[in-house]
Each structure stands twice: as structure tokens, then as C-alpha cells.
Amino acid sequence: MSAHSQDHSLGPKRRSFLQLSAAAVVAAGLPIAAGGRAHADGGPTFTAVFTPSDPTSGIQAALDAAAASGGTAATVVIPDVGQNWVTDPLLIDHTPISNGALKLTVLFQPGVTVQARPGAYPDAQCLLTIDGGNAARSTTANRGFGIVGVTLSGYGATLAMNKSEYTTGEQRHVIKLVSAGDIWIEGLTLRDSGGDGIAVTATKGNYAVNGYCGNVTVVNVHCDNNRRNGMSVNSCDGMTVSGSAFTNSNGTGPSAGIDFEPDQPLPALKPPSPYTQPVYNRLANITVTDCFMGGNVNSGVLVQSAWLTGAPTTSPIGITLDRILIGPQQAAAGQDAPEPSFMYAGPGDQGKDPGGAVTLSNSLIRTSPNSGSILVAHSWSGGVDPNGGVQPPTGTKLKLTNTASLDLGNAAGTYKPFTLQADGFSGAAPVSEYGGVVFSNFLMVTDQAPPFMQAIDDTTAHSTLANLSGTLTVVDPSGVSTSLGSSPRNITFAITHMPALPAATVSVAASAATVAAGAPIQLTFTRASADVSAPLPVSYAVGGTAGQRYDFDGLPGAAVIPAGQSSVTVSFGTRRPDTGTDTRTVSVTIQPDSSYTVGSPAAATISIT
């Protein structure tokens, strides 16, 4: 089967689940083409044996044999057998991995599809669960995680479920991580779940295990057509997501690209238990770069952190979204108002906010007729600083830096291009003071009727908008105005109004015409303009014979030339996941836009040898 095409048929149906012994697994040093991560620190390789009547047993037996191998590392290979592996739920919960004694790598070869068996996933069953949370205990080696040290690498491979079958519920995820640490997920397509493509969660009842996942890396993954979200992050401290796409989430709420949404804390226990304080989820040390979130029914990015109200300030919120493209999203049957493409709902309780920041930088928000732009809800602003202008550390900030929002062609809906509101988002109580947004060279381009920014007070809470600072440019041919509620305080931002963006001609050039697989590629987008005072978003299409998120890292489809600069450089990596020796090309072409004129060269083509 070609590395660039996959057979998505269901294949033969499976008989009842059967665990094969380790003897059914071939332990061999199978050669693996250079691609993503290699074997985990050496160790034996176990190749899953395909049995048409029972593909589940071949994969699970290989996982079990690797865990029982007795070494410090092992690799499991899922080979391309020319048809799908149609499986029941798969589980990695082995004691050596829970204890931190064994590092496990699972390699899905190019062309592999692991497909959920129809009828085999009632309730909350997931295709692949990585979970030691129920039985595990904290050790020096596992650093308190329920399970630690698992790599899933699968350039050109797919893990898929049967979404049309799941008409209720929201918990049938493709991959579920539970209080897991040192997890690497790379190159896979994860689609058609009854829940999320990836769910990053914490154990619900084991106080001896960390109440969060940590050191999770997601690289060149595509989560598509999942019922709930592309990825849900309930609890994580330490996460890097790059080169990935989260698209077409639809079926049940929130239906977002990425949803950062903590669960309620575990309750404090009475003495003599040592756990006399609630155990909160975390959203800390999270970075998302070079990603695309589009075609989702709800927001491209949704942050709902109300359950972090009361969380300790020693674990502040820390989410950085850099060089991403949000939108446009899709319309859904019965959706009666445009949904914001980017939504942030803070903890929102004065004196009980863990602090920190959510930062959106060097990124583009592009709306469609069914999706608004930005909503900031239920975010305690930190109170008014008597010294003026500086927000106290106990209020979580939203920072918008060198980021552009193109809010064009929207019908009048619930939200203005930039909306702030105090009322109880997702059932949380309204706050008396809300806001806390820091702008730094933020650009809003809109053709909606003014005002472009609207604050919605809550009369029962006697709420007040406060603490908006920084610099932003608003491009609106009808003028610029704001509606900031009844008695706004500490509003110090400076708005520059333009009826249109300054004339600019944009071109693109590559640093080299040919690179060897494994070498990086650099693209530079340049604007020729007499006025570079505002950021300029540039949209581009990616084509060629090379596969995105296969032969080269995923690209968001937009680059933002920062305010005050004439160019921006985009870098991405290349690889050869399969054994082919042909030359493959990457072509990046600037797309026409009302914000600029396409100049020459309008495209750059690079050969990967």
C-alpha cells in the first residue's frame, strides 16, 4: 500500500477478545525507516502479528510482551499488512511503565490504519488508553505520574473510530491519557471518535498519583471529524503541540479544535488522610505553535478555566499559542448565532484566581459568516491597581501580541468582533470586575457595524470592566468606536484607526531550492510598503508532491509580519518516513487577500531529496 494512501474499509469482523501469549509475538530488530523518533533508548522490538479474525490480540500481545521483556526500553511495531487492524479497545497500563522502569515506543508503519471494531465501544471505551491512574503509586522513577514514558509514532498511519455509530455520550476518545507523563505522540491521523482525538486528563480518584499529565508532546498530528473536540486538555503541566491540525469537530459540545477545560477538583479528605486540601487540575506550561484549527462547529480554541477558581497560585495558568491560524469554522444545523473563533473564560473569582496568562501571539483569526472573532468572558481582571496601570499578580491575563483578527462578512449576531462579558459563562457565577486584557500591536479588521468592542456588564453583580491596556489598530471603513459598559476603570489602551490597511505587496522566498531529508526549510515572507506600523497577516496554500505532516512539518497556512518589520521567516523540518528515494516537493503559494497585493515571487518550491 502506498505511504500516501490508506484503505479505510473496516476489514474482517473480529471474534471475542482474546489475549495471545508472548509467544505469538515476533521479537526482532525490524528495520524502521528514518522518520520521527527512533526506538526508545534501544531494547528489543516486538512486531504485532496480524490474525484476520482477531487483530486486537496481535497488538495487545505485542504491548504485553514488550512490557514483560524485563529491560529498560522496548519497541512495538504495527506493520502495514495491506488491510486494516480492526480492534477492540487497546490498553497500555503495565506495571513496569507505571513504575517508570520501562520506556515504550509504539511505531505504526506508513499506511497502517487501526480501526475501531463496530459495536465494540459502549459508553466510555476508547481506542487506545494510556492509564496507570487507578493502581499506580508515586515512585522516584515515575515522578508521581500514573504511567510514564510512552511514544506513539506513526507517520502516514491512522487511528480511527466509527463516529456515525456513537449517537450518545462524549467519552469515546481515540487516544486517552490519564495522569500520564513523558508522552510523545507524532505523525498520526486521529479521526471519527465519539469524543476527542486526544483527551489529556487526570485520574478521578487516586490521590497518590499526580492530578495532571506532564511533559506531553504532540507533533504533526491531525485530529479530524471528532464528535466532541479535536483535543481536550483537562489537566496538564508541561505540554508542547506543534505542526498539528484540529479540524471539523462536530456532534456534541463544545465541538472545538482545542478545548482547555479543567474538571472540578478532587475534594479534600478528612484527617488522618494526608490529602486534606482539594486536588486541582492544571493548565500550566503549555505551548501550541504552528497549528491550524478550522472547520469546527464551535471555537477553534476554547479556554474554560472556571474550575480553577481557588487553585493555588503556585500553579498559575500558562498557555501560549504562537503562530497559529484559527478559522474559519463551519456552520452547524440549528446554530442560531455566530460563535467566537477564540473564546477565553477565566477563573473569575476575586482573590481565588491562580494567576498567570493565556497568550495569543503572531497568529491570525479568520472568521466566517457563522463564526465571530473573540469573546472574553468571566475573567476577573485582578482589581484596580492604586498605583495605576499594572494588574496585580492574582488575576489571569489575556495577552494578544502581534496577532490579527479578520472579522469580515458576518451577519449581525450575539457577539461583536471583540466582546467582553461578566456573566456566568458555562454556569459560573458572574464577577464584579472583569477584563484583564493586554494588547501589544493587535490588529482588528472588520466590516461589522460599530462598535467593534463591546462590554456586557452583569447588573446583578454590579460588574465593571477594568484593566485593558496596550496598543491595537482597528481597520474599519465606517469608523471606530467602543461600548465599555456603565463605569469602566483603568482602560489605558491606545487605538489607532485606519479606514484601510496601508498598501502592501507581499512576496515569498525560500532559503534553498533543494534540501536533504532531515534538513530544515526556511521561508521568508516580505512586504513592500511605505507604512509597516501595523501587523500584516499573510495567507498561503501548501502543495507539492511531498506530504504535509509526513515528509515535512505541518504549517498553519498563515504568517503574520510583525508591526514595525518588513518580513517574517518561517522554519520547518523535513524527513523521510518511508524507504522511498524519490525527490518530493513542497510548494507554498501566497493566497490573494484584500489586505495586500500578491507580488513576485508569489510562490516558493523546495525539493526534498
TrEMBL record:
<dbReference type="InterPro" id="IPR006626">
    <property type="entry name" value="PbH1"/>
</dbReference>
<protein>
    <submittedName>
        <fullName>Right-handed parallel beta-helix repeat-containing protein</fullName>
    </submittedName>
</protein>
<dbReference type="InterPro" id="IPR012334">
    <property type="entry name" value="Pectin_lyas_fold"/>
</dbReference>
<dbReference type="InterPro" id="IPR006311">
    <property type="entry name" value="TAT_signal"/>
</dbReference>
<dbReference type="InterPro" id="IPR038081">
    <property type="entry name" value="CalX-like_sf"/>
</dbReference>
<dbReference type="InterPro" id="IPR011050">
    <property type="entry name" value="Pectin_lyase_fold/virulence"/>
</dbReference>
